[in-house]
Predict the structure.
Amino acid sequence: MRAKSVLASAVLAATAALAQVDTAWVRRFNGAGDSTDWPAGLAVTSEGGVYVTGYSFADDTVDDFMTLYYDTHGTVAWARRYDGRGDTSSRAVALAVDGENNCYVTGKTWLAGGRYDWMTAKHDTEGIVEWTTYHSGTLAENDEPRAAVAYPGGGVVVTGASFGPAGNWDFTTIRYSAAGDTLWAAYHKRYRQLRRRSRRAGAGHGR
């Protein structure tokens, strides 16, 4: 009986603790185009700030990378719109923060030839773009990054999919240095097979 009483007390205490959580702040962002603004990635800094990235439509109705930095009080310290090579569609999908709180944003950008390439950009703590780098697969087809992880000492690894010589989607993983140099790139040719298996498994699970 005593054990049950102790357990009940613990549950009540935990419930009370959860009920005491307060919302520190809530912020809404509406881009210059007063249109769709879509978040895609979020990361916190060692100082308690928050990076948010995604895409936002500008006045010219073209979507661009949009990255914001909120300080610990939820104040927007800076917001950066970035369209890469030109006035074409650019959509960020992920970000990562290194040990010095620099922000690496990756996504896809539209080329005049009719396809998407990877685009990765590094922002310093003031939001300035230090460098931008691009990746295009071996075929003139769409290439799309999916995730990014930064190293504490600087630099980032980006992974996603790009078309290989056989005309199939391949796993693609690239490591960039803190200066934006490509240190290595690795490819794995089972992306399409694994994606098909995943779809079949999902369809079977839904029956």
About this structure: The chain has a mean pLDDT of 82. The two ends are 45 Å apart (CA to CA). DSSP finds two helices and twelve strands in the chain.
